[in-house]
Design brief:
Elements (H helix, E strand, L loop, with lengths): L16 H13 L3 E3 L5 E4 L4 H10 L4 E10 L14 H4 L2 E3 L1 H4 L6 E7 L22 E5 L6 H14 L8 H15 L14 E2 L9 H11 L10
Parallel strand pairs: 3-6
Antiparallel strand pairs: 1-5, 2-6, 3-4, 3-5, 4-7
Helix pairs in contact: 5-6
């Protein structure tokens, strides 16, 4: 696509590494609105991007929020895909795996003014709340071929300290996913009603998305870790 990295980093994947790289890119981008998207995310806004930004400015919001919509195969298998078929065909189901299984933060800051601080993972912005009635769907295409090996490596290196972490969350979330895969033959259980998997598309927001997303985002609280975790 003619896109080349502006910056690269090698070595251990410490919890703070991604944030440092992101902030270096934000500094390089300069004043204005910054769109923050991970490589495995596609953002689906509740209107044209310019309109979303104008609405935020008119209502005094300095960030725009989103909610993860985890995309998986129809069978729940962690399989690859063919570009000619498209992502919607390969991963037709969308649900709340990150929120309901991993017990991780499903919120995202998808747009932020240049002088607004964004926390690790782009999950929140200290001192700023996005409009809960204008939340973007963040289609999360993480659950594909190779991710299990990535998660196993994350768990091992987080446990032995090779990759530095600031909380027990990263290791605990990895272990929850691996335990689920082990229980279901290496697949995600798409029939589990907790995850609310249904057919979705990158072409349009899911039915009732704004009300659904608002309910999750406004009620979400961090998982309370104890010594047993």
């Amino acid at each position: 696509m003619g896109i080349v990295p502006a910056h690269t980093s090698t070595g251990p994947w410490h919890e703070h590494t991604n944030g440092e790289l992101r902030d270096a890119l934000r500094h390089r981008a300069g004043p204005g609105w910054h769109l923050l998207a991970d490589a495995d995310e596609f953002h689906q806004y509740p209107g044209p991007l310019r309109q979303v930004i104008l609405r935020a400015e008119e209502t005094g919001h300095r960030v725009v929020g989103g909610l993860m919509l985890d995309r998986v195969t129809a069978s729940g298998r962690l399989s690859g895909w063919q570009p000619e078929g498209g992502l919607d065909l390969a991963y037709p189901l969308g649900g709340h795996l990150t929120h309901r299984l991993l017990q991780a933060d499903p919120r995202k800051i998808v747009l932020a003014r240049h002088d607004v601080t964004v926390a690790s993972g782009n999950h929140r912005s200290p001192g700023h709340r996005p409009d809960p009635d204008r939340l973007c769907a963040v289609h999360h295409f993480k659950w594909r071929e190779g991710v299990r090996q990535d998660i196993e490596r994350r768990a091992a290196h987080s446990a032995d300290g090779t990759w530095q972490t600031t909380s027990p969350a990263r290791l605990a979330e990895a272990r929850r996913l691996l335990a689920h895969l082990g229980k279901h033959g290496g697949a995600i259980d798409t029939s589990d009603p907790r995850f609310a998997f249904r057919r979705v598309s990158l072409a349009r927001l899911p039915a009732n998305w704004l009300a659904e997303a608002r309910g999750i985002v406004t009620a979400w609280r961090p998982y309370a870790y104890s010594g047993e975790d």
